[in-house]
Amino acid sequence: MADSSADLLEKELADFEILEEAKKEEVCKEPGDGTSSLKNEKEEEKKKDDIGESKTSATGETPQATTPPNENAREKPSALVEKDPEKAVEAKVEGNTLFKTGKFEEALRKYDEAIALCPDDEKESLAAYHCNSAAVHSKMSDWESVIESCTKAIDSKPDYVKAYMRRSVAYEKQDKPVEAYEDIKKADELAPNTARIKARCVKLSVAAQERQEKMKNEMLGKLKDLGNTILGNFGMSLNNFKAQKDPNTGSYNISYQS
User: Fold this and answer.
1) Which one, 63, 156, 167, 218, has least CB within 10 Å?
2) Are 107 and 95 in contact, with CB atoms under 8 Å apart?
3) Contact 121/157 with Cβ under 8 angstroms?
4) C-alpha distance from residue 133 to each of 51, 65, 136, 150, 194 (Å)
5) Which of the four pLDDT bands, split at 50, 70 and 90, describes residue 83?
6) 151: Cβ contacts below 8 Å, ≥ 6 apart
7) Distance, CA of 197 to CA of 212 (rounded, Å)
């Protein structure tokens, strides 16, 4: 079965993140001991906070989860924890490693830790950590949590294109084309030269219009039923009334027909 537009967009996001993650792994080596320089690694991590999608295994398959995370079982760090941006980066790096190996719940705990440790004024990093969590939830098809995490990312960084794109996918997965279209339209405004976004804008625009038309007809049907219920007490119905549009003013004249 061919991938849906939403799946293809999520894959495109994943491919982009893999490339970003590959750049981070090119850290400097300390002479003589063959170990990576933690200082350089941290500097690289601070420059680019987005995670990469999990690398494929030897069989060419990407680690997947079959069930959403148990939010009640996952203990989040206390909000009273002392803020430490460097430790937040370290937690995020550990989360990335766990994410790549398919250990999604453990990765979520590390991203929660990064969020708790990150100072409130470091909006860029907070947004990235929340979007990291959204990527994990997406892998687990927990679309409500994807929306929640992306919303927090957008609250921290209102121009975060990736968060709008990912939340759009989640809304589409929940059969909410109107909300999905609003998010992809915002992403298109922020990144107007992205072909994949434009293609989704066209698709979701049609789906959103169809859904809005359906909702309008359902509402008119309910109003008509209500009107007939009331008028029925007087031996009438809405069919007794005819609306005629005035071509000069554009207004409607309503006449009663027995």
Assistant:
1) 218
2) yes
3) no
4) 9, 14, 5, 8, 24
5) very high
6) 167
7) 21
